[in-house]
Amino acid sequence: MWPELKERIAETLKTVVPLIALACLFQITLVHAPLEVFLQFLAGSVLVIVGMLLLFIGVDLGILPMGRFIGAELPRKGSIALIVGVAFVLGFATTVAEPDVLVLATQVDRISGGEIKGSLVLYVTALGVGFFVALAMARVLFGVSMRLLLTISFAAVLLLSFAAPPDFIPLAYDAGSVTTGVLTAPVVIALAVGITSVLAGRSSVADGFGLLGFASIGPILAILLMGIWLR
Amino acid sequence: MAVLPLAALFLVVQVFLLDLPRKDIRNILMGSLLAAAGLFLFLLGVHIGFMPFGQAIGEALGTLSYKWLLLPAGVALGFITTWSEPAVRILADQVDEASNGSIPRLMVLTAICVGVSVWTGLGLLRIGYEIPLLYLLVPGYLAVIVIMWFSDKDFVAIAVDAGGVATGPLANTFLLALALGTASSIGGQNPIVNGLGFVALIALAPITSLMVLGLLVRWKESRMEI
Questions:
Q1: ipTM
Q2: pLDDT tens digits, residue range A116-155?
Q3: Percent of chain A at pLDDT above 90?
Q4: Is A184 within 8 Å of B165 when comparing Cβ atoms?
Q5: pLDDT, tens only, A90-125
Q6: What is the mean pLDDT of residues B141-169?
């Protein structure tokens, strides 16, 4: 246990220390922030290191196996509809629970002058995520080209960007990032890799990855459409 | 908080489909709890420490007399911040594992960091010169649509996921606070409008860099075949 833990601590330090060092360098040379802010930064850094250590241990022990077990077992026991259904629920449920999405919802509420309710944004975003995760999963199962699906999705994003009211655009693109939380990401990745590993004739890399990225297109389209619908 | 629906979903699937031994279930639930606690501490540290300091750095950058200096500052900050982003590590590890080491984790990690660093530099420059967001986003997405048809299939898939993980908790707080800080000290037009959308560039960044890497890999392979 101890040597393994030691290795983890070393790994965590290697991950965070460069950022802390760079921030210190900026403080000395350019920023000269008040001592209070700088000390608060150092205190925060300690929390970040401890938190990241626990996070990495927990992800390896629980989060990744969770995705892997579900992913490896689903195609064996369930139908295509069930797999796509689980993908939808996974996308929907984790988005509704993501605190960042609530922040986003209040922002939309404000920009639209209360015309678009925060709770509506929350559910539309979650529906967008669920739909796109399910779509990406169906793509793997039916063997549709990922490039084709991506081209269509990106083209739709671009076209809608020109049609949507300007103040919705930054918000929509930012919304794409709120869905991929630190805990959701490993589950989705492990689940997709698990499913493709038991399906015949699928490449574990080309088909196992990409699900997460599709999930973030959903909310972009959802918010852009909401903006167009409002005007 | 995202851990609750995950654990609930897992338990439902476990009851109806899986029949895992108790030891596995205990490990999974304990691991999820540990990860959630770790994430809580991590986010707490980021919010009390990194966010205010990121804003301080941004404000200092905005007052620089030479605006082009925003580019190297953004390049350095973008690279190092992504280096620390936890989900980026997890993705790189998973790629290494799924490809049996043929796509090594360091390669994925470096490609993501390089992508974000270039786009963070451009993003800060954009704020400095008050260029509209779409002037960067539209060419970026168009380039991606074209490049992906020539890039290696594996790398296209990884690239799409990389766009999701690069916008993790550090990018969403530290880099965003930095961008908003820069926008507010530069003054000019509405700082919120000018600073928002920064995260969108970070989401696009690793997609471009990994697809270009896939292009290079494919090109090298075809040369070796001849």
A1: 0.85
A2: 777 888 888 888 888 998 998 888 888 888 899 999 999 9
A3: 13
A4: no
A5: 888 888 877 677 777 777 777 677 777 778 888 888
A6: 90
Task: Identify the pLDDT of residue B209.
Answer: 94
Please give the residue of chain A at the shortest CA–CA distance from B160.
A213
Helix (H) or strand (E) holding B119: helix B105-129
B43: amino acid identity, one letter: L
Nearest CB among B27, B32, B148 relative to A147 is that of B148
CB contact under 8 A, A185 and B87: yes
* Shortest Cα–Cα distance, B153 to chain A (Å): 6
Chain mean pLDDT for chain A: 84
- Please tell me the pTM assigned to this model: 0.88
- Looking at beta carbons, which residues of chain B come within 8 Å of A169? 133-134, 197
Q: Where are the beta strands (DSSP E) in chain A?
A: none
pLDDT tier for residue A201 given thresholds of 50, 70 and 90? confident
- Closest partner residue to B157 (CB to CB) among A51, A157, A209 is A209
Tell me if B52 and A41 make a contact (CB, 8 A cut-off). yes
B153: nearest CA partner in chain A: A206
Task: Work out the burial of residue A213: count CB atoms within 10 Å of its CB; fewer than 13 is exposed, 13-18 middle, 19 or more buried.
Answer: buried
- Tokens representing A104 are 């986003």
Q: Do B128 and B67 touch, CB atoms closer than 8 A?
A: yes
Residue type, B184: S
How does DSSP assign chain B, residue by residue? -THHHHHHHHHHHHHHT----HHHHHHHHHHHHHHHHHHHHHHHHIIIIIHHHHHHHHHHHHT-S-GGGHHHHHHHHHHHHHHH-HHHHHHHHHHHHHTTTSS-HHHHHHHHHHHHHHHHHHHHHHHHHT--THHHHHHHHHHHHHHTTTS-HHHHHHHHHHHHHHSSHHIIIIIHHHHHHHHHHH-SS-HHHHHTTHHHHHHHHHHHHHHHHHHHHHHHHHHHH-
Whether A180 shows a pLDDT value over 70: the answer reads: no
